[in-house]
Specification:
Number of helices: 10
Structural class: mainly alpha
Strand order of the largest sheet: 1-2
Strand content: under 5%
Radius of gyration: 23 Å
Distance between the termini: 27 Å
Shape: extended
Largest sheet: 2 strands, parallel
Number of strands: 2
Helix content: 55-70%
């Protein structure tokens, strides 16, 4: 233990607690064993907070969770779920849903194929390289935050919906008739918020969903990783 120079855990109090956590107990024996919040876990939390930032994502994952509960509640329902997949995707591998869990968001990779690799958990990953990976992620998020990038995503999603006979929304969610702004508010920031009307469903999802997700993820990455630069 005297040669230890670093220790990393998730945010559980029994591991990372300032006074009685394992890291604190170790540091009473070796002050040089600096504690760092596990960066793979931090990345997981970035994804969790980004998803929680928008009601559409929350609704989607709640639906996936309900589908999991329904399809696994009995053998008959589970068999029906598998047969439904076979009829929609004949000849393709049948996918088993996984129970979703906030603390281990990466577990949803098998259910939704959202994460391709646990890059920060590789054995040859060092501190410097890890931060370079985060910088590349930030650059990618910045590049993808564009109207052209979302247009491609929206078109692909629309084509998929059409192939499955899923109705494509034609009305912007929650947007009624345009309200007239009182004269004394016309030059305020409040007026801009009240009077803004989305021109299309595509614009609504680009700004309220896509951009919100990317912006939240960028902010969380900076907060959980770049704050350590000092």
């Amino acid at each position: 233990m005297k040669n230890m120079r670093g220790q990393g855990y998730d945010s559980a109090a029994n591991m990372s607690g300032v006074f009685r956590g394992l890291q604190a107990r170790i540091r009473t024996h070796n002050e040089k064993a600096l504690h760092i919040h596990c960066k793979a876990h931090c990345l997981n939390l970035v994804l969790v907070e980004s998803v929680k930032s928008n009601v559409h994502f929350v609704t989607f994952f709640n639906l996936v969770e309900k589908l999991y509960v329904f399809s696994t509640s009995s053998t008959k329902k589970h068999t029906a779920f598998l047969k439904c997949q076979e009829s929609v995707y004949p000849g393709q591998h049948v996918t088993e849903l996984q129970k979703l869990s906030d603390p281990r968001w990466a577990c949803q990779e098998r259910a939704l194929k959202a994460l391709q690799e646990d890059a920060l958990q590789q054995k040859d990953m060092d501190h410097s390289t890890a931060y370079k990976v985060i910088d590349r992620v930030l650059d990618t998020l910045k590049t993808n935050r564009s109207e052209e990038e979302f247009k491609t995503i929206f078109e692909n999603a629309s084509e998929k919906a059409e192939s499955l006979d899923i109705p494509i929304p034609t009305v912007v969610p929650g947007q009624g008739r345009k309200r007239k702004v009182p004269a004394h508010f016309q030059h305020s920031t409040t007026a801009a918020k009240v009077s803004h009307q989305f021109k299309s469903v595509e614009e609504y999802y680009r700004i309220k969903v896509y951009y919100t997700f990317l912006d939240t993820m960028t902010q969380e990455l900076h907060r959980r990783f770049k704050g350590d630069d000092d």
